[in-house]
Design brief:
By secondary structure, the protein is of the alpha+beta class. The protein has 3 helices and 8 strands. It has a single domain, classed as YjbQ-like (Jelly Rolls), CATH 2.60.120.460. The strands form 2 sheets. The chain has a 5-stranded antiparallel sheet with strand order 1-8-3-5-6, covered by helices on one side. Strands 2-7-4 form a 3-stranded antiparallel sheet, with helices on both faces. It is elongated, with a radius of gyration of 16 Å. Bound molecules: zinc ion.
């Protein structure tokens, strides 16, 4: 049985934070060579997503588009005032699942794993679980 890996993350702006190194570290530490890796975000105004790693403006453009498509509508009724973040969280989702082979995650040449922050600044964490199979 492999353990659940927990990683801490401090965020200071709405942005994608590259967590690929932590995911690879968890896979390596687990000793699993063939299996599945789940990356999970336990927050309601943040998400896990996979996107381009080559041009930093891709992540910035996604954040820009999310702000345009999901602004803080005055009609929102949630008392905390961060419903835009809750909407973005649901759109991107709380987790990503990666295939592990030869002790490494299968990622396309241009892909990395990101923690997406939609309600900064926050002290966040995320979990990684690697399952052999
Ligand atoms: Zn809220």
């Amino acid at each position: 049985m492999t353990k659940v890996y927990t990683f801490d993350l401090k965020t200071d702006e709405q942005a994608f934070y590259n967590i690929t190194a932590q995911v690879k570290q968890a896979i390596s530490d687990s000793g699993v060579k063939e299996g599945i890796c789940l990356v999970y975000c336990p927050h309601t105004t943040a998400a896990i997503t996979i996107n381009e790693n080559a041009d930093e403006y891709v992540a910035k453009d996604v954040i820009f588009a999310m702000k345009k498509v999901f602004p803080r509508f005055p009609e929102f009724r949630h008392d905390e005032g961060n419903s835009d973040g809750h909407v973005k969280c649901s759109v991107l989702g709380a987790s990503e699942t990666l295939i592990v082979t030869d002790g490494k995650p299968i990622l396309g040449r241009w892909q990395d794993v990101y923690f997406a922050e939609f309600d900064p600044p926050r002290s966040r964490n995320f979990f990684v679980k690697v399952i052999e199979g």
